[in-house]
Write a structure and sequence with these properties.
2 domains, DHBP synthase, alpha/beta, 327 residues, Rossmann fold, 19% strand
């Protein structure tokens, strides 16, 4: 199969719409990472996503809709706080998990009774969602468990020859996947941390919990059960810059090529070392994380990531991704 990369315009969106409504899968940008989209009611197309990615069949997908799509046609809204969350954070890097009305095919929800729904803010993605006017499920557009793609070229590197079209919307602005919030109970629960933080949710609706995932739990969100986001090189996660330098010297003495991935403050102190600089602020670090991991797999035998040793705000999501990618 020939894989085409097209910038987003009326013509390319029309082509993507035709492919999707014909049962094909297409890569599209969102503000977080690139997604691999299929019509959510088309079980054969959804099966293609699992096959192309090599995705475990018990790892559910998120339905993406445009900002004026009536959520009530897909899910039951059991709690009034949902309306305030939608007003505050949608469109945006935010997903809510509801009781499903079973409109989306069983394959998309992996036989579960809930559906995760998100309204992306990326203009090109919204243009496509409006054109098809049906929910699209769209996990990250990469091979399963590999680092998530934040450019069309990252998608192409993993899926060239496997899908017909990649819509190129530029580099994703968020850098890590959406926050996923279970809104089926009286108190919302974070299933996967992201750019919309616990503190932001509490400011909007009061109490918010963080789910503690255990073996045997019913999976309601992607990104919680398996190891994810891993680059195609060896990795290590250490607590301090001193530990990173010690491991770096050991690897270099063994004839290997190590890189240290860290924030800007540590990077500035590592003159003469191979460094993957993540930036200064939490948003910069989230924005750069996957890009630096994918850069590292091309250059390094081992990427040594320095932990941020904090779990507040966006760092909760950053540390979740670091543990899964480098831990």
């Amino acid at each position: 199969m020939f894989t085409e990369i097209l910038g987003i315009n009326d013509e390319s969106v029309l082509k993507a719409k035709y492919l999707l409504l014909s049962g094909e899968i297409v890569a599209m940008p969102t503000e977080t990472v690139y997604g691999l989209a299929a019509v959510a009611t088309d079980k054969d197309a959804v099966k293609k996503i699992f096959e192309v990615k090599g995705r475990p069949i018990d790892n559910p997908l998120i339905a993406h809709v445009h900002k004026d799509f009536p959520l009530e046609t897909l899910v039951y809204i059991d709690n009034d706080y949902v309306y305030e969350l939608k007003r505050r954070f949608m469109p945006g890097p935010f997903t809510m998990v509801f009781r499903s009305k079973n409109v989306v095919c069983e394959e998309a929800v992996c036989g579960g009774d809930t559906l995760a729904v998100r309204i992306p803010s990326h203009e090109g993605c919204q243009k496509l969602l409006r054109a098809v006017n049906v929910p699209l499920v769209a996990p990250s557009a990469n091979l399963s468990k590999h680092t998530s793609p934040v450019t069309a070229q990252h998608v192409y590197a993993d899926l060239n020859g496997k899908i017909p079209l990649i819509l190129d919307g530029g580099k994703c602005g968020g850098g890590i996947e959406s926050t996923v919030l279970d809104v089926t109970g009286s108190v919302p629960r974070i299933l996967r941390a992201g750019l919309i933080t616990k503190e932001m949710i509490e400011d909007a609706v009061g109490k918010c919990e963080i789910a503690q995932h255990k073996d045997g739990d019913k999976v309601r969100s992607p990104g919680v059960k398996y190891r994810h986001y891993r680059p195609n090189c060896e990795t290590a996660l250490v607590n301090t810059a001193a530990e990173a330098v010690s491991l770096y010297e050991k690897e270099k003495a063994a004839g290997r090529t190590p890189y240290i991935m860290c924030d800007d403050e540590i990077a500035q102190s590592l003159t003469g070392y191979n460094v993957l600089n993540l930036g200064k602020t939490d948003k910069e670090i989230a924005f750069n994380l996957y890009d630096r991991l994918l850069e590292g797999e091309k250059k390094a035998d081992i990427v040594i990531a320095v932990s941020f040793n904090r779990e507040d705000g966006v760092y909760l999501g950053i540390m979740n991704r670091l543990r899964k990618s480098c831990g």
